[in-house]
Amino acid sequence: MRIQTTLGAAIAAILLTGTAQAAQPSLDRTVTRDLATTPAAGFGGQRFVVKTTAASAPGRAALSSALGTSVRRAGLATAVRATTTAAARPAATARVLRSMGAPGWHVVQASRALTESEQASFVRELSAEPGVLKVEVDRLYQRADVSRSPRALPAAAPNDPNYARLQWNFNNATGGVRAEQGWEISTGAGVVVAVLDTGIVENHVDLAANVLPGYDMISDKRVSRRDTDGRVAGGWDIGDWEEANYCVALGGQPHPPADSSWHGSHVAGTIAQVTNNGVGLAGLAHDAEVLPVRVLGSCGGFGSDIADGMLWAAGAPVEGLPTNPNPAEVLNMSLGSGGPQTCPTLYQDAINQVNNLGAIIVVAAGNSNANASTYTMGSCSGVIVVGATRVTGGKASYSSWGTRVDLSAPGGGGSVDGDPNGYIFQAINNGTTRPTSEYSLGGFTGTSMASPHVAAAVAMVQSVVDTPLAWGEMRDLLRRTARPFPASIPGSTPMGTGILDVATLLNRATQPPCTENCVPPTVQLSNKVELRGLSNGAEDAVYSFQAEAGKVLSFMTYSGTGNVSMYVAAGRVPTATDRDGFSTRANSNTETVRFTAPVAGTYHVRLTGTYAGMTLVARQ
Fold first, then answer.
1. Are 130 and 248 spatial neighbours (Cβ–Cβ below 8 Å)?
2. How many other CB atoms sit within 10 Å of the CB of residue 400?
3. Which residues lie closer than 8 Å to 286 by C-beta, 6 or more apart?
4. How many CB atoms are located within 10 Å of the residue 300 CB?
5. How far is C-alpha 276 from the chain's CA centre?
6. What residues act catalytically?
7. Which residue stretches of the chain have pLDDT < 50?
8. 389 with 412: CB under 8 angstroms?
9. pLDDT per residue over 316-346, tens digit each?
10. How do residues 483-506 score in pLDDT, each as one tens digit?
């Protein structure tokens, strides 16, 4: 869905560069798009990826020799006559298109699109060749998209004029990520975040100052919309529009026309939109730099280009390309398969290599409202998987879920939450095909929008820690510091440990190591506000509540599964032996501690045990 809303003079002419210049692009509208319902991905039939035992040139030579035999055995070397139900098909050949960045992997191209049965026969015969370890269809993947009370802003709130009104995802107490408190600690300075996406519009009006030159990895001009198949420097988004049925030639189903999405610019803006420049909107890690790696274009992007993009972004050598002079510490991938798919071996090999280089990959859980572990990218290991939440803090209807989801972040609930609170806003180009000089504030929905919040948070952590965290350490830290969901998350659709909490994440990351009398980080409780979907982590959970004197105070846990114990104390963090009240029912999540004459001040609650899907509430 695409909705245009005129916002008048309040947002006119806001997207200017930081210096005074004439004839800059102006902005006079917002655009909202529900991008969660993308077409099914994974189609293709002309390209394959093959892993050989021998790497590089020897493997490529052996593979070239094997292709002719495999084509003949698969029955593709002979033309097929037309039938009453199928058109005639010419004889097919196959060639090695190139070797890839992942060791031993090569791209093979057939001379024509193959039917599903022909694909299966070719994969079977080529897999049987000596020295061939794995053969996969090089599929196309898609983007993973889909009245306010006045308040005083803390000192860290940016001066970008539309921040307070549109960017609830940063500042809303219920659904936001507590960005302002986090900005007191880090803004991501010195960290490079690669955005593997549709690219970024060159000279973007409110992002260009934070963009490094990247690379356009797309190796098919039908997808890239360039004049040649060759890869080119820059990583600039020149459009991903589709005429009606344009993608049928690439193996897709008939479809209506679609305008260019400018998806990569939107994702990159959430990460590092120029901030505190008095114009436009804010980025979360706004002192980080983003590296555009263009892997998606019209009809999506080939898995082989995406895998090479991962490796190039992290600084690994890729045949035919210069080494990336600005290796990324963080990779954001707001893309995936539209249907169930196990992680391709090619992807897993590339991910493992990226992790070994010290970079961290953050991915969108997907928009299929299905188990994320059955779709790519969630089916891959070595990545941080992010689900999408609404302004209410509840699950976005489209978001995929499951135990593979590590945590969630704002993705927007769409029209159900209204405009602007149903959307994630960033500056996008107004062009319907190629980019123009005009921009709008674009509101999108999808796990594509959730993932860059976490990628930005990872950059903020790496910017201030003494030793950069490995992906596993970062995942655990994100999970431990996530804010409990303020809305009910059904046990059948788990969305990770909570919502990204940038402030708690950074406080914990920069906390000196504890050697004795260690206290877990504290989460503040609000009166009569339930914290739902709580699960135990690697350590006890501690919560705090500001109590009034003389009014009955109760702390209660209930729902979910497991066995929890609750200890409460005034003015200090309790233990099992040092507490003012406790509740330890056997084999139960239902615990209550009540104070009939509490003192004024801070009460601390410690939860211990093994539990999942539990609710905690303080009432006074």
1. no
2. 28
3. 158, 187, 188, 210, 272, 273, 274, 275, 276
4. 29
5. 25
6. 197, 263, 448
7. 1-28, 35-42, 147-155
8. no
9. 999 999 999 999 999 999 999 878 999 999 9
10. 888 888 888 899 998 999 999 999
